[in-house]
From TrEMBL:
Protein known as: Uncharacterized protein
Keywords: Membrane, Transmembrane, Transmembrane helix
Domain of life: Bacteria
Record organism: Marinitoga piezophila (strain DSM 14283 / JCM 11233 / KA3)
Transmembrane segments: 59-81, 93-112, 124-145, 165-183, 192-210
Length: 215
Protein backbone atom coordinates (compact mmCIF):
# COMPACT_ATOMS: atom_id res chain seq x y z
CA UNK A 1 0.00 0.00 0.00
CA UNK A 2 2.81 2.39 0.88
CA UNK A 3 4.60 1.61 -2.39
CA UNK A 4 1.40 2.12 -4.39
CA UNK A 5 0.76 5.48 -2.75
CA UNK A 6 4.38 6.52 -3.27
CA UNK A 7 4.35 5.70 -6.98
CA UNK A 8 0.92 7.11 -7.81
CA UNK A 9 0.69 10.31 -5.83
CA UNK A 10 4.06 11.46 -4.59
CA UNK A 11 5.08 13.08 -7.88
CA UNK A 12 1.86 15.13 -7.75
CA UNK A 13 2.52 16.34 -4.22
CA UNK A 14 6.04 17.26 -5.28
CA UNK A 15 4.78 19.20 -8.31
CA UNK A 16 2.22 21.10 -6.25
CA UNK A 17 4.82 21.77 -3.59
CA UNK A 18 7.18 23.34 -6.15
CA UNK A 19 4.44 25.56 -7.56
CA UNK A 20 3.36 26.58 -4.06
CA UNK A 21 6.94 27.58 -3.25
CA UNK A 22 7.14 29.55 -6.51
CA UNK A 23 4.00 31.48 -5.60
CA UNK A 24 5.29 32.06 -2.07
CA UNK A 25 8.58 33.50 -3.34
CA UNK A 26 6.55 36.37 -4.77
CA UNK A 27 5.98 37.43 -1.18
CA UNK A 28 9.39 36.56 0.21
CA UNK A 29 12.36 35.01 -1.61
CA UNK A 30 13.38 33.16 1.56
CA UNK A 31 10.63 30.65 0.80
CA UNK A 32 12.80 29.52 -2.11
CA UNK A 33 14.88 27.60 0.43
CA UNK A 34 12.08 25.04 0.54
CA UNK A 35 13.10 23.97 -2.96
CA UNK A 36 16.13 22.35 -1.34
CA UNK A 37 13.68 19.83 0.08
CA UNK A 38 12.49 18.96 -3.43
CA UNK A 39 16.09 18.47 -4.54
CA UNK A 40 16.82 16.21 -1.56
CA UNK A 41 13.72 14.15 -2.37
CA UNK A 42 14.85 13.74 -5.98
CA UNK A 43 18.32 12.64 -4.88
CA UNK A 44 16.77 10.16 -2.46
CA UNK A 45 14.48 8.69 -5.12
CA UNK A 46 17.23 8.50 -7.74
CA UNK A 47 19.88 6.91 -5.54
CA UNK A 48 18.67 5.57 -2.20
CA UNK A 49 14.98 4.66 -2.43
CA UNK A 50 14.13 0.95 -2.20
CA UNK A 51 10.63 1.64 -3.55
CA UNK A 52 12.03 2.12 -7.07
CA UNK A 53 13.13 -0.85 -9.19
CA UNK A 54 15.93 -0.82 -11.75
CA UNK A 55 13.62 -0.17 -14.70
CA UNK A 56 12.09 2.89 -13.08
CA UNK A 57 15.52 4.05 -11.96
CA UNK A 58 16.67 3.86 -15.59
CA UNK A 59 13.58 5.83 -16.65
CA UNK A 60 14.36 8.53 -14.11
CA UNK A 61 17.93 8.65 -15.40
CA UNK A 62 16.63 9.05 -18.96
CA UNK A 63 14.26 11.84 -17.91
CA UNK A 64 17.06 13.58 -16.03
CA UNK A 65 19.10 13.66 -19.24
CA UNK A 66 16.20 15.21 -21.15
CA UNK A 67 15.83 17.86 -18.43
CA UNK A 68 19.57 18.56 -18.48
CA UNK A 69 19.69 19.01 -22.25
CA UNK A 70 16.55 21.17 -22.20
CA UNK A 71 18.10 23.44 -19.60
CA UNK A 72 21.31 23.69 -21.61
CA UNK A 73 19.36 24.61 -24.76
CA UNK A 74 17.49 27.27 -22.82
CA UNK A 75 20.79 28.67 -21.56
CA UNK A 76 22.17 28.83 -25.09
CA UNK A 77 19.08 30.73 -26.30
CA UNK A 78 19.25 33.08 -23.32
CA UNK A 79 22.90 33.80 -24.02
CA UNK A 80 22.65 34.09 -27.81
CA UNK A 81 19.64 36.40 -28.10
CA UNK A 82 20.69 38.94 -25.50
CA UNK A 83 17.52 38.60 -23.44
CA UNK A 84 16.77 41.70 -21.38
CA UNK A 85 17.36 41.01 -17.70
CA UNK A 86 15.03 42.77 -15.28
CA UNK A 87 16.23 40.85 -12.26
CA UNK A 88 18.84 38.17 -11.73
CA UNK A 89 16.46 36.61 -9.22
CA UNK A 90 14.05 35.66 -12.01
CA UNK A 91 16.81 33.76 -13.78
CA UNK A 92 17.80 32.03 -10.56
CA UNK A 93 14.15 31.17 -9.95
CA UNK A 94 13.98 29.50 -13.34
CA UNK A 95 17.09 27.42 -12.74
CA UNK A 96 15.94 26.49 -9.24
CA UNK A 97 12.48 25.26 -10.12
CA UNK A 98 11.97 24.59 -13.83
CA UNK A 99 14.16 21.45 -14.02
CA UNK A 100 12.22 19.99 -11.08
CA UNK A 101 8.86 20.82 -12.65
CA UNK A 102 9.85 19.46 -16.06
CA UNK A 103 11.20 16.25 -14.54
CA UNK A 104 8.02 15.69 -12.54
CA UNK A 105 5.77 16.24 -15.58
CA UNK A 106 7.83 14.00 -17.86
CA UNK A 107 7.84 11.29 -15.23
CA UNK A 108 4.05 11.42 -15.02
CA UNK A 109 3.80 11.34 -18.82
CA UNK A 110 5.94 8.22 -19.03
CA UNK A 111 4.43 6.29 -16.12
CA UNK A 112 0.70 6.99 -16.12
CA UNK A 113 -2.17 6.73 -18.56
CA UNK A 114 -3.39 9.76 -20.48
CA UNK A 115 -6.49 10.45 -18.40
CA UNK A 116 -4.65 10.06 -15.11
CA UNK A 117 -1.95 12.54 -16.12
CA UNK A 118 -4.44 15.10 -17.40
CA UNK A 119 -6.63 14.91 -14.31
CA UNK A 120 -3.85 15.11 -11.76
CA UNK A 121 -1.69 17.71 -13.46
CA UNK A 122 -4.48 19.76 -15.04
CA UNK A 123 -6.84 19.97 -12.08
CA UNK A 124 -4.12 20.32 -9.48
CA UNK A 125 -2.21 23.17 -11.12
CA UNK A 126 -5.30 25.09 -12.24
CA UNK A 127 -6.93 24.81 -8.80
CA UNK A 128 -3.72 25.85 -7.05
CA UNK A 129 -3.37 28.91 -9.29
CA UNK A 130 -7.09 29.67 -8.91
CA UNK A 131 -6.88 29.56 -5.11
CA UNK A 132 -3.78 31.75 -5.13
CA UNK A 133 -5.54 34.28 -7.38
CA UNK A 134 -8.59 34.39 -5.13
CA UNK A 135 -6.44 34.85 -2.04
CA UNK A 136 -4.49 37.63 -3.78
CA UNK A 137 -7.38 39.51 -5.39
CA UNK A 138 -10.30 38.51 -3.18
CA UNK A 139 -13.86 37.88 -4.32
CA UNK A 140 -14.21 40.84 -6.64
CA UNK A 141 -14.76 41.59 -10.30
CA UNK A 142 -11.03 42.10 -10.77
CA UNK A 143 -10.41 38.80 -9.02
CA UNK A 144 -12.89 37.08 -11.33
CA UNK A 145 -11.11 38.45 -14.40
CA UNK A 146 -7.76 37.30 -13.03
CA UNK A 147 -9.21 33.86 -12.32
CA UNK A 148 -10.69 33.32 -15.80
CA UNK A 149 -7.58 31.64 -17.28
CA UNK A 150 -7.52 29.06 -14.48
CA UNK A 151 -11.27 28.45 -14.80
CA UNK A 152 -10.69 27.88 -18.51
CA UNK A 153 -7.98 25.34 -17.66
CA UNK A 154 -10.32 23.49 -15.30
CA UNK A 155 -12.91 23.30 -18.08
CA UNK A 156 -10.24 22.20 -20.57
CA UNK A 157 -9.12 19.46 -18.22
CA UNK A 158 -12.70 18.24 -17.80
CA UNK A 159 -13.22 18.19 -21.57
CA UNK A 160 -9.84 16.53 -22.24
CA UNK A 161 -10.69 13.55 -20.04
CA UNK A 162 -13.73 12.85 -22.25
CA UNK A 163 -12.84 14.16 -25.69
CA UNK A 164 -9.21 13.64 -26.54
CA UNK A 165 -8.85 15.92 -29.58
CA UNK A 166 -11.12 18.71 -28.35
CA UNK A 167 -9.30 18.83 -25.02
CA UNK A 168 -5.95 18.90 -26.76
CA UNK A 169 -7.15 21.78 -28.93
CA UNK A 170 -8.37 23.75 -25.92
CA UNK A 171 -5.03 23.35 -24.14
CA UNK A 172 -3.21 24.27 -27.33
CA UNK A 173 -5.28 27.44 -27.75
CA UNK A 174 -4.28 28.46 -24.23
CA UNK A 175 -0.66 27.67 -25.09
CA UNK A 176 -0.84 29.83 -28.23
CA UNK A 177 -2.33 32.74 -26.26
CA UNK A 178 0.44 32.51 -23.66
CA UNK A 179 3.02 32.25 -26.46
CA UNK A 180 1.61 35.35 -28.14
CA UNK A 181 2.02 37.41 -25.00
CA UNK A 182 5.49 35.94 -24.60
CA UNK A 183 6.77 37.02 -28.03
CA UNK A 184 4.85 40.32 -28.15
CA UNK A 185 7.19 43.19 -27.45
CA UNK A 186 10.60 42.61 -25.95
CA UNK A 187 11.35 39.31 -24.27
CA UNK A 188 12.70 39.55 -20.76
CA UNK A 189 13.51 37.22 -17.91
CA UNK A 190 10.13 37.70 -16.21
CA UNK A 191 8.33 36.61 -19.37
CA UNK A 192 10.57 33.57 -19.54
CA UNK A 193 9.69 32.56 -15.99
CA UNK A 194 5.95 32.93 -16.62
CA UNK A 195 6.16 31.10 -19.95
CA UNK A 196 8.19 28.27 -18.45
CA UNK A 197 5.78 27.56 -15.61
CA UNK A 198 2.52 28.26 -17.47
CA UNK A 199 3.17 27.85 -21.20
CA UNK A 200 5.24 24.65 -21.09
CA UNK A 201 2.74 22.79 -18.85
CA UNK A 202 -0.04 23.83 -21.26
CA UNK A 203 1.88 22.33 -24.17
CA UNK A 204 2.53 19.22 -22.09
CA UNK A 205 -1.19 18.85 -21.32
CA UNK A 206 -2.10 19.40 -24.96
CA UNK A 207 0.24 16.63 -26.09
CA UNK A 208 -0.89 14.32 -23.30
CA UNK A 209 -4.53 14.87 -24.21
CA UNK A 210 -3.82 13.99 -27.83
CA UNK A 211 -2.02 10.82 -26.82
CA UNK A 212 -3.85 7.56 -27.41
CA UNK A 213 -4.07 5.04 -24.59
CA UNK A 214 -1.19 2.64 -24.76
CA UNK A 215 1.18 5.17 -26.41
Amino acid sequence: MKSLFFNKYFYLFELLFIYAVLLATGENRVYGLFLILAVVIEIYKDIFSKEIDEMERYLRFKISNVVLYSTVVFSIILYSFNIKMLSVYNVLLFYMAFPLVLKSMLYAGYIFERETVIKRVGYSLSLLLLIFTILSEGFSFAGLIEAMPWIYLIISTFVATRYRKIGSFMFFVAFVVVSYYFIRGSINDMKIVVYSFIGIPLLFLSLQSLRKEGD
